[in-house]
Amino acid sequence: MSARRAVLLVGSARPRGTGNSEAIGSYLLERLAEGGMDTEVLHVSRTQRPEKERQLLQAVDGAELFVLSTPLYVDALPYLVTRSAERIAAHRTATPVPSAVGFVALVNCGFPEWEHTKTALEICRVFARQSGFAWMGGLGYGAGEAIGGRSLEEVGGLIRSLRQGLDVAAEALLAGRPVPEGAQALLARPMVPSRLYTVLGSIGWLRAARRKGTLGKLGDRPLE
Amino acid sequence: MNKGSDVTHATVDQGAVLPATRAVVLNGALRGDETLAPIESMLLELLRETGAGVRDFQLRDIPLAHCQGCFECWLETPGLCKVDGDAGREITGALIGSDLMVLLTPVTFGGYSSEIKKAMDRSICLVSPFFRRVGGEVHHKRRYRHYPALAGVGVLREPDEEQERIFGTLVERNALNLASPVTAVCVLPAGAPPTVVRERLAASLEPVLGHLARRVA
User: Fold this and answer.
1) Closest partner CB to A221 (pick from B66, B138, B144)
2) CB B112 within 8 Å of CB B118
């Protein structure tokens, strides 16, 4: 059995199998598994009860690599991820850490520009520092909603550069090196021009609203 | 809903004409952390001196579900989170009805505490799902005509320039996405003497306190 182990924490609150963060994180984890790592996937929404939280802490402590794949919520990590990070940091500063664990963060957002994720990635870096993890780098990805919760292979050529960037990241991580800058450069390539993305996004909202019967209400101001 | 922990400080004087709530403070202290309490007292004092009514939410004592990322607040019940029966709608209503929102938080990895994040994540119903372009970046369009100014007051246990910088950036990014007309950031060391706290709060928050005073007048 391999002694190398990677743990993925999916930061989305969406049901299992439907989130873009899960799709991105799972793709990286599969590459790590192909490289000989044992892998485990945990969902942050299922680690909030005390016994599940203990499992998360044990899994992270026993890993060589801790991977967080999360959506961006209001310019930063979502509540559930922040809460888990607080608990992990408290645990790892209060308890002798059994071994060096690397930490890598993947943050995706619904805006076309990946730059929106920069602040969250910086928060991840500080979390790594304060929790005794070796910072292995972070990757930001814009237009995450285009994945639609599908596996990255299923989405096809539209997100080829995302897959390529994750391949580059996996190769480095398997070699024990931090994610190289070239990986972010690949993820930064827009899948479609920004203006087209926002037009398509707006059409998507309008179609969804028509299905729900709320087409004329999207601009409502119920709290005014 | 448990309203016992939110305090409308405008109701101090019995029989007086009460000032309207113009400022909302979200206190994001985690359970067991009392380092924010003296800073909060000073902050409330400064806010009241503008003549504004102030509403203060102690988030750790308030039942509030986390955002599920379902976007139903944009599609199914536009402008309202589908979760009813917790304090979410009350807090977002207070925020959008105010002239200033203040996020008081322990600086957590450079960002907000989980308590603040829980409330902020629920605020996406305040903007539209559609897009606008600001400085070459895409952001969400405004839903409302009026948005509050935004101030972030962070408390650091140890001096940490990196966290201080990230915290400032986060507040600025939030202000951009929430269309706040004025922004201010103040980072204070935990346990600072009251005179230092007051001085630094007054100096750092001057832009938003001035904005609030003008709105009250």
Assistant:
1) B144
2) no
